[in-house]
Amino acid sequence: MILTINCGSSSLKYQLHAPDLSHVIASGLIARIGEPEGTTDHWVGHRGEHHRRAIPDHRAAFALMMENLTNPEYDVIECPGAITAIGHRAVHGGAIFFGSVLVDDAVMAALRACATFAPLHNPCNIIGIEEAQRMFPGVPNVVVFDTAFHQTIPERAHAYALPYELTQKHGIRRYGFHGTSCRYVSRSAAELLNRPLDSLSMVVCHLGNGVTLDAVKGGQSIDTSIGFGTFGGVPMGTRSGDFDPAIIFHLVREAGLSLTEIEDICYTKSGLLGLSGLSNDMREVMAAADAGNDRCQLAIDVFVYQIRKTIGAYAAAMGGIDALVFTAGIGENSARVRAMICEDLGFLGISIDARANAIARGGHPNISAAGARVATLVVPTDEERMIAIDTAALTAAASARQPGQDLAFALAAQ
């Protein structure tokens, strides 16, 4: 059985997959790690449990995960030895990792070096791998990078117009994120359309609390909205999206803010929350806008406008578009946001059917209007399954290795 782990700063999300990856046997979310009262949710099929208890650190969270998985009431596994491989999500692989890799000492050292690029994410991902190695000694671990899918972006799209020597020395370039989601969704979209992935040009809109728009041509990422850090691109729940960097210097001089304070504003106080002054949750923002809150309406308008503008730019970058794909929390669940984004995109061949859009979450992925030149789809993302697929492939390759055979145990993003 394959265990997938997504370890955050205050949460641990896990899924246990059947050996053939045909289904998820059990899953769980342990949240508010390190707070006075944490929460645990564990599901086996349609059965689930929710508890509140203190979870002092990640070691305690991993122990709780194993307690849940070995609970005889659910009859999932008897002992840790039932786990044959473990797959981990890592946010940032820098320019080092072009695909998923089996974990060894060199990989861990490189992961730590990449932590400077994602200081809010990579350290937590590293903790998850270390705890898994401690709890499951001898079991192979695989790490799957959000940035790996975007390594195919050409230099003209990932280079910033700063002094070249400076960018090369400090690893400054567009890296992109949510790549695991975009990779899974683009493959699923091709299957739904019954067309070869390498024949399609599509824009994948991963719209959640974090937002990525990705131009995928021939199955490869050729441009992506989030850049060097994780707050660029279009506005997100609490993150700003792109803005004129002159604003930073203005805030230092005129508002007396420190760079640390500005960084915190960009990551945690901007986006939907900053514009609305109310919430980072699109549902709450929409409800308030409907009640007459002008700032909430502005937040929605800015969010939709920036996404629509980026779709147009990516269609131009690819020389046309065959499919527009929505995924993640907002993309999958908000028919209203999808309709607003697609409005006025008829010049690209994008047109959606209102009824199909309204029932898309019920298993009707194609929301295109009759006769539309571009297919518009709603495709649920499944990053955990993508991680499990890579983990199974890499561990199978490792077990098949002949003695002395020199193999680089890495799996390319495509």
Automatic annotation (TrEMBL):
Q: Which GO terms describe its cellular component?
A: cytoplasm
Q: Which cofactor does it need?
A: Mg(2+); Mn(2+)
Location of the protein in the cell? Cytoplasm
**Which pathway does UniProt place it in?**
Metabolic intermediate biosynthesis; acetyl-CoA biosynthesis; acetyl-CoA from acetate: step 1/2
Query: Which reaction(s) are listed as its catalytic activity?
Result: acetate + ATP = acetyl phosphate + ADP
Q: Record's PROSITE patterns? A: ACETATE_KINASE_1, ACETATE_KINASE_2
Q: Which GO terms describe its biological process?
A: acetate metabolic process; acetyl-CoA biosynthetic process
E.C. number(s) listed in UniProt: 2.7.2.1
Q: Name one GO molecular function term.
A: acetate kinase activity
Q: Which residues bind Mg(2+)?
A: 6, 383
Q: How is the cofactor bound?
A: Mg(2+). Can also accept Mn(2+).
Chain coiled-coil ranges: none
* Binding residue positions for substrate: 89
Q: Which residues form the active site?
A: 146 (proton donor/acceptor)
Family matches, as NCBIfam families = ackA
* Family to which the UniProt record says this protein belongs: Belongs to the acetokinase family.
Per the entry, what this protein does is: Catalyzes the formation of acetyl phosphate from acetate and ATP. Can also catalyze the reverse reaction.
Identify this protein by name.
Acetate kinase
Instruction: Specify the species.
Output: Rhodobacter capsulatus (strain ATCC BAA-309 / NBRC 16581 / SB1003)
Task: Show the taxonomic lineage.
Answer: Bacteria, Pseudomonadati, Pseudomonadota, Alphaproteobacteria, Rhodobacterales
